[in-house]
């Protein structure tokens, strides 16, 4: 069973600073990983797919890196609208299936 | 731009069946590029993938829920549906429907949720 572990659970950062969020897979997932942002009361929004490709309309301050079991979502120069919960998501090819991480809450310091 | 909207009862009694429908507008449900999925989120907790249906009608489910879940597609109504049997309080959650789209290029694609409904809260309580 695949387990996706995100750290830290909560990250406190000041606006304008940089944030790095971590996601670790219990076994290698290659680059089959995405990142989502969820603001309070809203559905999640796709930010990054393929571990490092930005989805349409996502600002360049969001970047993803990593492969295998270790992944990072970096947000440079945090804006007020970036404070939210972030989830990593593993896509399993065969059979098709998905596993979310437990989320990292990014809060204003 | 495709839009998805969940509908169904907000309250279900324990041991009964939860039934939700997702209506798709502004796009086709029959394009082979897409599949259609359900995801849920208990209050204050992480997201959990429930399952998906392909335009062929084939399905894949989360192994932890597989024995209780059925997802089906009604192309004539542009809807897909979720049935979850024998519910307990642990099934109380916001339920989202979502479109699964291909991302990538060349011969290799990955498939992720790119359009979501607003979510509907379903409580399991007597």
Question: How would you describe the overall organization of this protein?
Answer:
The complex is a heterodimer of chains A (109) and B (126). Chain A is mainly β and 109 residues long. Chain A contains no helices and 11 strands. In chain A, strands 2, 4, 5, 6, 9, 10 and 11 form a 7-stranded mixed sheet that branches. In chain A, a hairpin with a 4-residue loop joins β9 and β10 (97-100). In chain B, 0% of the residues lie in helices and 56% in strands. Chain B has strands spanning 3-7, 11-12, 18-25, 35-41, 48-54, 59-61, 69-74, 79-84, 93-105, 108-116, 120-124. In chain B, the strands form 2 sheets. In chain B, strands 2, 4, 5, 6, 9, 10 and 11 form a 7-stranded mixed sheet that branches. In chain B, a hairpin with a 6-residue loop joins β4 (35-41) and β5. Chain A binds chain B through residues 31-32, 34, 36, 38, 43-44, 46, 49-50, 53, 55, 87, 89, 91, 95-103, and chain B through 35, 46-49, 52, 60, 62-63, 96, 98, 103-104, 110-114, 116-119.
């Amino acid at each position: 069973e695949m387990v996706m572990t995100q750290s830290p659970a909560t990250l406190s950062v000041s606006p304008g600073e940089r944030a790095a969020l971590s996601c670790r897979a219990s076994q290698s997932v290659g680059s089959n990983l995405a990142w989502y942002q969820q603001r309070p009361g809203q559905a999640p929004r796709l930010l990054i797919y393929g571990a490092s490709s930005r989805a349409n309309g996502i600002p360049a301050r969001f970047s993803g890196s990593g492969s295998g079991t270790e992944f990072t979502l970096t947000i440079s120069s945090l804006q007020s609208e970036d404070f939210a919960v972030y989830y990593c998501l593993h896509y399993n090819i065969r059979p098709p299936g998905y596993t979310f991480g437990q989320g990292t809450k990014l809060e204003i310091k | 731009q495709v839009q998805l909207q969940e509908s169904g009862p907000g309250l279900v009694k324990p041991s009964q069946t939860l039934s939700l429908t997702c209506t798709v507008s502004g796009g086709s449900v029959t394009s082979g590029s897409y599949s259609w999925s359900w995801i849920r989120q208990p209050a204050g907790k992480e997201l959990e993938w429930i399952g998906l249906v392909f335009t062929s009608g084939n399905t894949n489910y989360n192994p932890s829920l597989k024995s209780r879940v059925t997802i089906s597609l009604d192309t004539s109504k542009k809807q897909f549906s979720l049935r979850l049997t024998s519910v307990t309080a642990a099934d109380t959650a916001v339920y989202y429907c979502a479109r699964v789209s291909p991302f990538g290029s060349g011969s290799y694609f990955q498939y992720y949720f790119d359009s979501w409904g607003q979510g509907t809260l379903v409580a399991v309580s007597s």
